[in-house]
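Retro notes - structure team

What went well: the batch runner handled both jobs without manual restarts.
What didn't: labels got mixed up in the shared folder, which is why I'm recording both outputs here explicitly, each with its sequence directly above its tokens.

Job 1
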Amino acid sequence: MRELVAPRMDRPFPLWMIFPVIFAALYASHYTLLRLPYYWDEAGYYIPAAWDFFRTGSLIPTTTLSTSHPPLESVYLALWWRLSGFSVEVTREAVLLVAALGLLAVWRLAMRLTGVASVAFWTVALTGLYPVWFAQSTLAQADIFAAACALWGLVYALPERDGEGVPKAWAAALWFTAAALCKETAVAIPLTLAAVSAWKGIRARRWAPWRDALWLATPALPLAGWYVWFHAKTGWWFGNPQFFRYNAEATLQPVRIVAALGYRVLHLTAHMNLFVPVLMTLAALMLDPRKTKDGRERAPICKAGRGRMLLLLGMNAVLFSVLGGALLTRYLLPMYPLVLLLAVATFYKRVPWWPALAAFCAGAFVLGLQVNPPYRFAPEDNLEYARVVRMDQAGIAELKARYPDATVLTAWPVTDELTKPELGYVRKPWDVEAIDDFTAAEVAKAAGEPGKYSAALVFSTKYDPPWLPWRLGPKEEKLDERYFDLHHDLPPGAIAERLGGKLVWEQRKAGMWIALIRFERQYVAAGQAAGQAGRAGR
């Protein structure tokens, strides 16, 4: 069969034709997720921040933790709410547009680096199906915004097939600036590429690489301006002290950095069935390159392009081993398309019937969307997050039906779900009594103050796999507990017993659970008070 090879710049597949196809595919595949209430960090920070800007015009949030995250995402979401109304579905569709824009950048990048439409198609398909990207495609968090803009920056920053320069440094600088104003850590990508260009300028003693380096370094200037303005308004440079301590100061410990780097390498090579294309790529490298009809060796990605991509992968692994209190895989979102592009390009270069390998990888990713791996992970890495949201909805529905006037003992994020109607779970705020989690220590604290709550909505604050075959024993547990916030919630029955309550409802799904506890003492006391009031009235 004749290989379908596109001309140099996407023809005969112009971007205006490709984008609607990508968006339609995303919309259809995410349709059942578009009305889900907000989840986790989007509920805890990003939606409240955008909601504050929408209502007050303040770029610095007032109803949630004041961090130093740049505000471009908030401005974007507020614009859509102004045009179409404030609703969960509008938000999710607006995020889908950004995810589609990111996949369009993957297509353009693959075409620039390989010139082969089939390679571009499979890279886009695998990126869209990869569980972490798929899940983030409707979640209103900064990472998908930064990833889309950063990938467009790479379109204009990585060398094409026949050159080692920066194709359009000024265009790359604009996209990288947008990425940095969505999420500050995205500035590391252009700065890394700027350092490469500067090094080439030193070695070649030419002005052109230095000019490219200056362009690629410019995204740091608007970001610095944001920090100066933020400091002038709040007195803090990098968010409030609690935020900065958790995400920067507390992470600068050698043992933690080394352990985090190990996790990051696994995130970039194995997480959510990514090991399937990675292992296939390593196997394919043992094969001789295939030849074209004129006897030349297939080489879809030039050496300079591969080198910069591998450098960016390593840089991001190290960066997010040093920064970020939580080892969230979404921080690496712009890097997964690069891993997949390298894999698909290698298949194309070395393996006959290579689309079958790509299709097998796609099947592995679809499986990873629905089937949880046998290790701990964040539910937002696949469709587990949708199950958790629906469980929270079910628990809150039981709470409303059984105890509509209760003061509720619970933990974050359900505390926000019950007190912020704009998140989509309740119509009016509830009175809550918050604890950090449902470990033995936190439950003991709550048991010492029984008069503050009349019901408890308890849930698993961490994903706990039904079986956990891959672990290194007690030492790994202690390491994760010390550096990565691992803790173990008590089971709902034990929580009820220690709080002196009765377990009245429970739901379990795929390693997560949620339960409702009633406290008889509160209702007995309330009944006695009502009786005394009635006798006094007579």
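Job 2
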Amino acid sequence: MTDHPDDLRRRIAELEAQLRALSSQPVAPTIDSPHAGRDINIATNQTITYLSTIIYGPDPDATQREQVERYLRRLAARMHRLPLRGLAAQLDDGPGVALPQVYVMLATTSHVEVATDADPTTPIEHFYQQGDRDQPLKREYDPEHALPDRAIVAAEPLVLRGQREHETSGRLLYRALLAAEAVQRYPRLVLLGEPGGGKSTFLRHLAWALARRGLGEQDGTLFGWQDAAVLPVLLPLRTLAQRLAAEGAAPATVSAALRDELAREYDARQADGLLDKALASGAALLLLDGLDELPIEPARGIADRLATLRAVREFAELHAGAHVVLTCRSRVFDARLRASLGWPVETLAPFTLGQVRHFVADWHAALAGRAVLTRDQAGAQAQILVDTILSSDRLRQLAGTPLLLTMMALVLAERGELPRDRPLLYERIIEQLLGQWDRHKGGQGLTSTIGAANLRSDDLRTILDQLSYEAHAGAAAQHAPGLLSAKDLHYALASFFAQVRVEDAWEAASRCLAYFDERSGLLLPADDGESYTFAHSTLQEYGAGRHMLLQPNAAELVLRRRADERWREPIALGLGAVQRFYPMLADRIERVLSELIDPDERGRPKPRARWYRDLILAAELGQERDWSLLRALINVDRLQRELRRGLVTLLADPAQPLPVAERVRAGFLLGDLGDPRFPITIEAWKQAIADARAGRRDGYFCPIPSLAGAQALWIARYPITNAQFREWTRAAQLPPRRHESDAHFSRPNQPAAGVIWQLASGFCAWLSQQAGATIRLPNEAEWEAAARGHDQRRYPWGSQRLRDRAATKEDHELRGWPYPVPVGCYPAGASAVGALDMAGNVWEWTSDLWRPDGKTARPRSDGLARALRGGGYLSKKSQTVATARIELPPGTGFDNGFRVLLEIDDRSPAG
């Protein structure tokens, strides 16, 4: 046999032609067709031959084709079931719930252009009701109803460049980039998501669907994947990290782990040959799941995240043709891990309401198919669930997470009510796992099973919380994530039962473990019974948090753990448990937040970066627990006042000890708390003007170097924010801007974007009248003087291009936020006069008509185009120079914002 490239290409071309011919016929003939089985077998054999040819070369023999088919069939069978142990053990019995039946396509936060006025092939009007672009989207394109492959999630203005005198504005429409499209787009990809956001389920479904395709059994469930034959290999990164710790972090170890996964989990024959050939031919798709489950630092028996990443990177470099996808929680994949890997990153988007509706319908249809519900009951419960989610913003937020949505469906079905808070939702799930579900169905609960008539299920929460804490603590120290020694676990349960006077405590512990294993699924055996692990890390985190916050030294435990990102969730959930179930212990919530906000720890100043991160954590915890609800329990006003003061210090620190991503988080949190750095009310504007008249250089306005014949000029330190702009639009009863409906653009302290020139000028006129001062847009010369200062610097911050000085396209692509950031997140990028964001974030309108040289030449076009300065969040670094400028018609609003200029009569005593 020869593997000459020409032979291989010729053979593949023949097979592709055969597959195209087959695709014109039904892949699954009707049942009553006399040739149905034969036709399916032909399609299957052709497809397997096609994939085998890609892997092995021209004319693969029968053994090689059998190897491919055997592996794909076992992979498809293994991935077909939706794992429900630890959530609903009864639904995991028997045939279980089929993953393809309830799977909903996932989308990323990136966008794909769908239609544009610049390309009339698909008219924009097609997507809107009554063919009118000013009407709402049609139902089939509305994210509230449609799936991500059709839902229009963003619309942007577009300037149509025809003849100058006929420039008009148009529109761009976008849908979300599907997760499957992202995998196919990038040979190397890191897929991020929130806990329970569907990362692992996506990989399982992708492996199942690609296995089916390889077998010629396509059924239309893999949206966004173009016809490409690959051999999927799914490997938990925890399994790999254990091999790396035992055998060394080398590419050969990665290869051995993949080979053993094929041989052990799927009984693949001659796994070495199949894997090596697939890697060499570029047919392998490696699905590496769960980087966040690895410890931060090296531990006994398991490699750390960074070492595992480096081994994966080196392996991928050796096998350049293989596709590799790696999943991780968003918060875990920090700048150090990004830099080590250097791969493209996409982030899974939360479920839209359209995805929620489809999942709920499919889920209840699956329950009806299993006879858990009648079809009428399934339809009624599905409608109740959707209506209940629609009734509450908090529930809509929870439903955006696939795991939480599944939990909501389970709890509603069993209890007839839907908790509106994560801790309460987890509490209800655990109650079911401890036996309430069994009792509801007429069976025995946990305490009856173990022979402890004097106990209720709730009485076991103390020991289960302690075990959760120990499992979570051990994951970052000596053991693999979530593992508890079977002997230690048995002893801990027996000791607990002895303390509460259960007869034959050792046997009671044995029955308890059997209940978890066989019926509940809360704890499951691992490592051939040598260890146990919590079936769902979310429930482990909840129990660990409960244990920590219910201890008398809760604040001390939080401070001890808060630097480890793995403990962020348990801390948040533990605070929620105290707030929800133990209000008499609310002083612990206040103590924890106070200790985090305090710049000192144990009487000594915290390191600056540590204090800043503590402030961010405190603000996130307060926001998650809802400050308005906490107000009934603790002194929220004092905490928020100190938080605002600390976050302002963080954002103003020119040393920038925190990475940009963390400063941006701090900025958004400060905006939600009420950002005091800029005036919003007319009274605050009057005070800012008075400060400038008094010569204060540390206020909102910054003095500009004198220009010939000019009044004393002061420019705003920041672009006008959404909060400031809304004050005017409300007063003037103006309709909201298009960006106001987009959560990525409408946060209080983001610069107001999408503002047309006329509105910017109107804001200035209104403010001048209300504040009794001359406030206007700067002209180009004034704007440039504020940016460059006396020394005519090239960039607002100096003469050299430096990192982390401006919010630009490259910065946003690296960190994954395609929108403006809160004002003032780049303190080291301050201009000569102290103004911030004069490079990047939003282009800023000036009062000048556009002139090509900016000074003397006649205006082009009809003379209406205006000049903008400073660059925006979509601008390249080359446009962050202080002299960068563009022109736009005044009626255009895309990423345009503005800042204001204050004129002070220098003849006045205060001036």
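One thing worth noting from job 2: The chain has a mean pLDDT of 85.
We'll revisit the folder naming next retro.
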